[in-house]
Amino acid sequence: MSSKLLSNSRRWAGASALAMIIALGGGAGVALTTHQAAAQVAVQPGAPSSFADLVEAVKPAVVSITVDGTEQEVSRFNGGPNFSFPDLPDDHPFRRFFEQFGDEFGPQDNGKRKPRHFEAAGSGFIISADGYVVTNNHVVENAENVTVILDDGDELKAEIVGTDPRTDLALLKIQDASDLPHVSFADDEARIGDWVVAVGNPFGLGGTVTAGIISARGRDISGSTYGDFLQIDAAVNRGNSGGPAFNLSGEVVGVNTAIFSPNGGNVGIAFAIPAGTVKQIVDDLKDDGSVTRGFLGVSIQDVSKDIADSVGLPTARGALVTQPADDAPASRAGIRSGDVIVEVDGDTIDNALDLSRTIASKAPGDTVEVVVWREGKRQSFDVVLDTLEEAEVASAEPEQQLPEEEETVITSSVGIVLVPNADGEGLLIKGVESDSIAAGKGFNVGDTILEADNMILSSTEDFEKAIAQVRDSGRSTILIKASRNGNIRFIGLPLEEK
């Protein structure tokens, strides 16, 4: 991972700082038989006494990558990400400070900050004799010049063939290359407990080897669109980004892309993009420099236990459709708000991320069978996918205002005070009892309840009628469709203490 990347406030970072980096390795067991309860698990022999032969074979195909370019400089002061001092009075001491040191901290060039030059470094690996190189998108982002440094020290110019920010992958091509050492991707999925060997360029040191095991699979990390990362415990640090994780056969099982770290250094929790995902993205980038994905056209959320109870699902699985987009594949096929998508082409959908990943793996124009849970039973729809476009996120609607006029209001049986929404559909929440279950589920004043148990609401009587219907049916949780600042969300609201 590059030093530039850690200083960029856009990078994956949270309360515990996710730094862009990673590492990985392959698979072998120990010569013994493990007894667990009544079962015997035979573990294959052949634990390596050394990784030297493996490293000798694959290390020539692992490269260091250096980039340079220009980007808009961001100041920590006067509107930067950490400090903001808008509209300071003329006699304020901070204003005099900024005027005195404006060249360093203040706006330049009529309010526009001057672009600054940057240099960065990362890792990558060659996948063909003619010089195709895989790395992370964040290693080469905004780069104007890219140099690939081979294991023997040779420096070769490369061009960016294409990038995919959604998976943080990039494909490079070394200019006028031939007969280069290269590695291939593993066909078999890596297993938890497999050995992995990571080779990369930590801290700009070049060709560094570390080893560990695959600690987990299917990890979803902050900042990722599609999740499904391998977690490994090989030591990785800044500069390892984009480097390969090998199995014991010398095949690439993952691309190192991020670490979890409270201090920016290795703590034994790193994440790699699985080889299967990388192969698919690389093939797309080779074709035309871009990646095309299937588009279903739904806003979705996970299914909680309360939501599952409210719609009669036996398990809390699937992706709940909050709103299908107008004239999108899902809505054209008949899928509607409140449906729970439980299968796509026979594959079970566990959650919203699983649905996003599954649809993204399909090609535009494919017809997929989508099974939904609606009104207590499964229904199937054939959907012809469109192409996912990198559309801008629509701005949220203005926050809804409470009616100005005073009126007689009645608290509902679940501790919510509702009034007709004078500005649109549904019922507006004017109050929430602090000790109610509704308050614990996050209902707030100003939210709009659009539907209850799939019933469109226009009066408080409608709301109470929906509650009564749910109780009469023997259910103890009602499904609420609510809106806050234009964002629609479904909530399972228990009708009594559990």
What's the layout of helices and strands?
Blueprint: H1 3-7, E1 18-19, E2 32-36, E3 39-43, H2 52-58, E4 62-72, H3 93-100, H4 102-105, E5 115-126, E6 132-135, H5 137-140, E7 145-149, E8 155-164, E9 169-174, E10 195-200, E11 208-219, E12 229-232, E13 244-246, E14 252-260, E15 270-274, H6 275-288, E16 294-295, E17 298-302, H7 305-311, E18 319-324, H8 329-333, E19 340-344, E20 347-348, H9 352-360, E21 367-374, E22 377-384, E23 386-387, E24 416-420, E25 427-432, H10 437-440, E26 448-452, E27 455-456, H11 460-472, E28 477-484, E29 487-494
Antiparallel strand pairs: 1-14, 2-3, 4-5, 4-7, 5-6, 6-9, 7-8, 8-9, 10-11, 10-13, 11-12, 12-15, 13-14, 14-15, 16-23, 17-18, 18-19, 19-20, 19-21, 21-22, 24-25, 25-26, 26-27, 26-28, 28-29
How would you describe this protein?
It is a single chain. It contains eleven helices and 29 strands. With 498 residues, it is an alpha+beta fold. The strands form six sheets. It has a six-stranded antiparallel β-barrel. The chain has a six-stranded antiparallel β-barrel with strand order 4-5-6-9-8-7. 39% of the residues are buried.
Short key terms for the protein model shown above:
disordered N terminus, 498 residues, alpha+beta
